[in-house]
Amino acid sequence: MGHLGFSYVGLIYLLMLTVPNIIWTRNQPKDYDYSNENKVLLIFERAGQVGTTAAALIFSDFNLRRFSAWSLWLAASFILMLLYEACWVRYFTGEHTEKDFYGNFCGIPAPLASLPVTAFLLLGIYGKVLWLIVPVIILGIGHIGIHIGHLKTMRERNTTGD
């Protein structure tokens, strides 16, 4: 269920998540508008962020241990985090458009939302920590839902010519 203790792996994941987002606050997409975000999804996102952050840091079950087949969960999770970083590189080296921000990456829809959520979910499975899995699911409902809403709005705007 989870062993209390500091997780350096959780800290690394949170840094991989947070640093690009801090940089993004100064390089947001042109015409980015968050005023119409679904308030229920926003509550899910915020609650999931708090739970995910806390659980990622306070359970030592995510730290490296002797390699086994179970370690493949961690490897898959880390690969998703590396893909997430690659998406940020694409965004920051691009024109900072909504298409760069929300566009598919390697066939993955809404990758800046779906990749980290899935990576943290797999990290929870690797650590066998329900206390991470549950808030990640809550986070995913909110965060991915909000990104899909923005993507839908962007596509509608592009088809109407606004």
Question: Can you describe what's shown?
Answer:
The protein has 162 residues and is mainly α. The protein has one domain. It is built from six helices and no strands. The chain has helices spanning 8-24, 39-58, 71-93, 98-102, 111-127, 130-160. Helix 1 (8-24) packs antiparallel against helix 2 (39-58), helix 2 runs antiparallel to helix 6 and helix 5 (111-127) runs antiparallel to helix 6. The longest helix is centred in the last third of the chain and has 31 residues, at 130-160. The radius of gyration is 16 Å and the shape is globular. The N and C termini lie far apart (51 Å). The mean pLDDT is 93.
Strand and helix layout:
Layout: H1 8-24, H2 39-58, H3 71-93, H4 98-102, H5 111-127, H6 130-160
Largest sheet: none
Number of helices: 6
Q: Given the C-alpha coordinates, what overall shape results?
A: globular
Mean pLDDT: 93
What's the helix-strand series?
A: HHHHHH
Please summarize what this structure is.
The protein is mostly helical and about 160 residues long.
Write a concise keyword list for the protein shown above.
6 helices; mainly alpha; 162 residues; 70% helix; globular; single chain
